[in-house]
Amino acid sequence: MEKILNYINGKLIEPVSNKWLENYNPAIGTVYSLIPDSTKEDVENAQKAALNSFHKWSKSSIKERSTVLQKIADLIIERQDDLAMAESIDNGKPLALAKKVDIPRAATNMSFFASAILHENSESHHMSNVAINYTLRKPIGVVGCISPWNLPLYLFTWKIAPALAAGNTVVAKPSEITPMTAFLFSKICIDAGLPKGVLNIVHGLGPKVGHEITKHPNIKAISFTGGTLTGQKIAEVAAPMFKKLSLELGGKNPNIIFSDCDLEKAVSSSVLSSFSNQGQICLCGSRIFIERKIYDKFKEKFLEKVKALNIGDPLEKTTKIGALVSSQHMNKVLNHIKIAKQEGGILLSGGKQFIPKGRCANGYFVEPTVFEGLSFDCSTNQEEIFGPVVTLTPFDSEEEVINFANSTKYGLCSMVWTSDLNRANRMSDQLQSGIVWINCWLVRDLRTPFGGMKESGVGREGGTYALNFFTETTNVCISYN
Ligand code: NAD
User: Fold this and answer.
1) What pLDDT score was predicted for residue 181?
2) Which residues are the active-site residues?
3) Fewest 10 Å CB contacts: which of 191, 208, 351, 450?
């Protein structure tokens, strides 16, 4: 059985303990590879390698750093078919989605930051006749990057690219549930000529490897994407050590449909924002609020499209809904469906595990599920489910829907569908979320601030925001006299 290896000091190596974890293919429900069950010793070796390579890498020219990051981007594109296949097998997502979204975006993350550092500039502040100040931005040192399973290579590179571009060296940990593309990525880094020790990838469990990275005194900043509870645990360890922390956490995003919207567009986009990647995107809109006048019309059109979604083998070209990432996650989602029924939810579509015919008969599939009749404050509408489950709720006024939308502990993104520009502006001002999409969903410009309010996170990623996070600032003040 294939063994995934750690990438430490430029080499692919087995874990010190020689212990291994099983890696599942969720679409067929079987183990297909082994992952290092790494420990403190592996993290120690990774951090030593990162520390040793920091001086040279941080002093390299931006042209050198940019060139190697661009080379990595080029190799991702060259190997995109293999990477997309690996992502689909490891995660359960449709191959077509991995080809269209995950892998191209991973390449874009690398090339975006390869280019961004070439165009970076810093501020100066002039005090007339007194002094001039200029801002120096310096790499922090060794930084830790910890990522989740839902968009494995996409989110892994979204952290690593700005960290390396800014001149840091990195100890990174992908999710133990989807480690394969990070392993393939380490081979790409070797082939691209990334100097040894600059990036180190340690595979293994969160409470072991992730925790060791978080608490290591030589690792000066932690960029984390994952669940809110894990974010809390990381903050408990890292905050008293005064580490820089970027936390991208959970969401329970509202998708708000006003009666003056382009209904066809709103319906089609809502199907995507509900069920893309089996609803396992932090930006999915799982609470759909519809102005009462068009509630029935929206519901009818939405359900027609949901029922037509092709669910099954992720490798089939026509598949729109693949497998959930693990049996544990499938059971968690099925339990949420049970709770929604207990809370009085009326099931409009789906609601069960789906068992495909053929090779995927033992996979972890759940039907795209739609409920109505639930109050905005019940647990189904408050807790993150992170699966193919959405609710439909009517509303009568802007004031009411703002109250519904802002009622959760989360604040990641919101979608608003309306043709009234003034209303769009009023809503954007009042919605408690880091991102508001008006008449669209998941349109991403990588220069923009990305992140959440409330328990959806701390800090922002993207463009200058990410480069600022991964640098320390020194203000230099030069007197004129
Ligand atoms: P998770 O929190 O279980 O795991 C994320 C990563 O943290 C994994 O690599 C895991 O091994 C590691 N980890 C676990 N315990 C740790 C610990 N004690 N110390 C350090 N690291 C630890 O999340 P998940 O289940 O992989 O991902 C799903 C969650 O991620 C959802 O809540 C989703 O909303 C969120 N998410 C957020 C964003 C965003 O940008 N805000 C994007 C994607 C996913």
Assistant:
1) 99
2) 248, 282
3) 191
Cβ of 230 closer than 6 Å to ligand 1, yes or no, is: yes
Cα–Cα nearest to 326, from 69, 149, 153: 149
Residues 411, 407: Cα–Cα separation, whole Å = 10
Structure tokens that stand for 338 in this block: 């049970």
11 with 145, same domain: the answer is yes
pTM for the structure as a whole: 0.98
The confidence band for 401, taking pLDDT boundaries of 50, 70 and 90, is very high
Q: What angle (nearest 5°) sits at the alpha carbon of residue 396, between those of residues 378 and 281?
A: 50
Range of the domain at 389: 254-446
Query: Coil, helix or strand for 248?
Result: strand
- Give yes or no: residues 198 and 61 share one domain: yes
**Is 259 in a helix, a strand, or coil?**
coil
Ligand 1 centroid–CA 301 distance in Å is 34
Averaged confidence pLDDT in the chain: 98
Same domain? For 373 and 317 the reply is yes
Same domain, 274 and 306: yes
Structure tokens at 363: 């996979």
454 lines ligand 1 (CB under 6 A): no
